[in-house]
Amino acid sequence: MAANTPEFNLPTLIVSRRATEVLAAYRCVIISTDTDYCEYPASQYDYVFGITRFAAATIGDPVDIIIQGVCLVQVDGNAVTITAGLSLCNHDALGYGQAVAGGAAARRECFGKALAGSTADGDLIPVILSAHSQYYAS
User: I need a surface site. Which of 5, 56, 80, 91 has the fewest CB within 10 A?
Assistant: First the structure.
């Protein structure tokens, strides 16, 4: 199924925060030090609070964050090939998702499971979000 089919865009739990920076839609965010605000994670493998539902054009704009359910996520499938069923983590400080990489000792913060694959940077894929962060060990 294509990532843009309606049955994949069914978020079930959404909260609202304000943006501390310009945010794109379908990206990973964290809660900032002021809990009324959200921002991109600082670096790879940071804890992810949720996925932006829409873009925030300016600082202070309200932004809906999907924290549980099925939603689209912008990923970098070029960094690590993504296949359906793989755990996803934050890729970078721009909030892209990526497949978890690492050896047997790798433990990463994951935010969900891919429901489709990707091998390209910038693809939108459907993801089922976890209700909480989970660790992955390959």
Answer: 5
